[in-house]
Design goal:
Elements (H helix, E strand, L loop, with lengths): L2 H16 L2 H5 L3 H34 L3 H49 L3 H6 L2 H43 L1 H48 L1 H6 L3 H54 L4 H42 L21 E10 L10 E9 L3 E5 L6 H8 L7 E6 L2 E2 L5 H6 L1 E4 L10 H6 L7 H10 L3 H5 L18 H15 L3 E5 L7 H15 L3 E5 L11 E6 L2 E6 L1 H7 L1 H13 L1
Parallel strand pairs: 3-8, 3-9, 6-7, 7-8
Antiparallel strand pairs: 1-2, 1-4, 4-5, 9-10
């Protein structure tokens, strides 16, 4: 492939990456057409002002007629007023389009992100994803709302100005036209470099955001280990790296603008010398030269604007490329086109794990679960115990269908999990995680997250059952109290009770407890355990337990080790038959 063909393919790729944005503009076609009409109108009025300039010079200044001068200036004033009105309409409509399309892109990206499988977020930094959602969409908003309008307006005035130049004086026009290829060449050459550097610059800014977000999120660890100085230096290095890339991009854009200005005004200077000579020799009127200078300046300003906007479009191409990458990611976990209807009442088994094997996408060579075979009846309480890394949490994640197994299947109330609508299946499950997750909102929102349509009385009843009502009432605004990021204003035990209240409110058919009382003190644990015991009645419950004292009364205990089921039985049966279970019990109860 030749160098020219490579350059052409790169340019085409640049244009291609911006093309999908047109799809977001399409719903607002009427406004876009209105903006274009206003833009064409303004361009036409701008070109007409050149003729008004000619009248002012020839019929006013040269003819020494005050009445003709007044008429010419009056005409120019009307044209300027019309241009201002058209500019207002054009600016408003284009800015509205930019904001609206940017908001739609943000929504589309967020909707795609929220539907993606958890493994995607294991492989991609949250800070980089947020940079795409905010910085890149803001850049596109600027392009659609401002730069695109400037580019179209400049293109129209460029073409119109060139036509008027040819009409006014062909000889001078050829001088101006001879300089245009020299202007376009650096635009293409510098534009490619700007696009490449823009992509790198946006990636580096995303890295800065990701790094800062991680440090701020873990600020207690940073300060506890007195790593502030090292983190300041490391963050400074990230910022400087981003600045260096931005500096190179700015230098390329500045060079482009400077070269265009130099070439354009060199051509204008030559044109003025030739035109001035023709006026002095009587070959053209002063008004023609004035109009010609006006159109020449308009053409040069249009070229300058186009060169600047071209650099912005290259940046937008980089942003669009990053956003389209996100929008093109397909969720690996999807509902079937014709999902099976889940009938909880008619099933005899609540859960079945049939010959289940699984490995995480980030560790494909290491099986987290191996040939798991387990049948759980409705209303049964099952405890999952075993050393760390045995596969307990992995079973929960497969049950929630955050991942699909490599082999075997999960069945929920007699239906294969893959055949069910994901939302319908997850609605039957309530999860209380070991590390409670709270949102930056009030208590109402955090508990009602389990069932958004629940009344205030139902929320309070769930809080009472989770033994959370008393401390919630003591908060500054009660249930309306803002909890801060990740519930930072609550203690660990309080956060856990809010999470338990959320699960109680959801009233699921299957309850998953991942060491749900681990963050509670002894007194709170006693109260919450009593509440959980009431909640578990007539409900299928799976409990991940590290403290075996909390599960000795389970219907069955499933002992896992290295991704395999070692033994299944009651507490006493496992004590008698499983050396591993007996060792775990001895370690805990001896310490107790």
């Amino acid at each position: 492939m030749t160098e020219s063909s490579t350059a052409s393919s790169k340019t085409n790729k640049s244009l291609y990456t911006l093309w999908p944005i047109v799809g977001f503009v399409r719903p607002y076609t009427k406004r876009a057409i209105g903006a274009v009409i206003a833009l064409v109108f303004v361009a036409a009025i701008s070109l007409s002002i050149g003729q008004a300039v000619k009248l002012v010079i020839d019929e006013g200044f040269v003819a020494q007629s005050e009445s003709q001068l007044a008429a010419a200036i009056g005409l120019m004033s009307v044209l300027i007023f019309l241009m201002a009105a058209g500019t207002f309409i054009r600016f408003y409509l284009m800015s509205w389009m930019g904001e609206r399309v940017s908001a739609d892109i943000r929504k589309a990206v967020f909707e795609r992100l929220i539907s993606l499988h958890p493994s995607y977020f294991e492989e991609n930094l949250s800070g980089e994803i947020m940079s795409r959602l905010t910085t890149d969409t803001t850049l596109l908003q600027s392009i659609i709302g401002s730069s695109f309008s400037m580019a179209l307006r400049s293109a129209l005035t460029l073409v119109g100005g060139l036509v008027m130049l040819l009409i006014t004086n062909i000889k001078l026009s050829l001088i101006v036209l001879s300089g245009i290829p020299f202007v376009l060449l650096p635009m293409v050459l510098f534009g490619r470099r700007v696009r490449s550097l823009s992509r790198k610059s946006q990636d580096s800014v995303a890295d800065v955001g990701a790094y800062a977000g991680e440090i701020i999120q873990n600020i207690k660890i940073v300060q506890s280990y007195t790593r502030e100085r090292e983190e300041k230096i490391a963050f400074g290095d990230e910022v400087n790296a981003a600045f260096e890339i931005a500096r190179k991009r700015i230098r390329q854009r500045a060079s482009l603008i400077a070269v265009v200005i130099l070439l354009v005004f060199t051509a204008i200077s030559m044109m003025l010398w030739v035109g001035g000579t023709d006026v002095m020799r009587g070959n053209m009127s002063a008004g023609d030269l004035g109009a010609f200078v006006f159109y020449a300046i308009m053409v040069s300003m249009s070229l300058g604007t186009l060169s600047e906007v071209y650099g912005e479009l290259q940046r937008a191409a980089g942003a669009a490329e990053r956003l389209m990458e996100l929008l093109s990611v397909e969720p690996q976990i999807k509902s079937p086109n014709k999902p099976q209807v889940l009938n909880v009442g008619s099933a005899t088994s609540a859960l079945e794990f049939n010959k289940l094997s699984f490995s995480y996408p980030s560790r494909p060579e290491q099986l987290a679960l191996k040939n798991i075979q387990l049948n759980i009846k409705k209303g049964e309480t099952i405890a999952l115990v075993g050393p760390s890394g045995a596969g307990k949490t992995t079973l929960f994640e497969l049950l929630e269908r955050f991942y699909d197994p490599l082999e075997g299947e999960v069945r929920v109330f007699g239906c294969a999990l893959k055949t069910l609508n994901i939302q319908a299946a997850r609605q039957t499950i309530g999860l209380v995680p070991q590390q409670p997750i709270l949102f930056s909102a009030d208590v109402w929102h955090n508990i009602r997250y389990g069932r958004p349509e629940a009344s205030d009385e139902e929320v309070q009843a769930a809080a009472r059952q989770a033994h959370a009502h008393q401390f919630i009432q003591a908060l500054p605004q009660g249930y309306g109290s803002f909890l801060g990021e990740q519930g930072v204003r609550l203690s660990g035990g309080q956060k856990q009770r809010i999470a338990i209240a959320r699960a109680i409110l959801k009233d699921p058919a299957i309850l998953l407890l991942d060491e749900a009382t681990s963050a509670l003190d002894a007194e709170s644990e006693q109260h919450v355990q009593a509440a959980l015991n009431d909640l578990m009645k007539n409900r299928t419950t799976l409990i991940i337990a590290h403290r075996l004292s909390t599960v000795i009364h389970a219907d069955r205990i499933v002992l896992l080790d290295n991704g395999c089921i070692v033994k299944v039985g009651t507490h006493l049966e496992l004590l008698a038959t499983s050396p591993l279970y007996k060792r775990l019990c001895d370690l805990q109860f001896r310490n107790g």
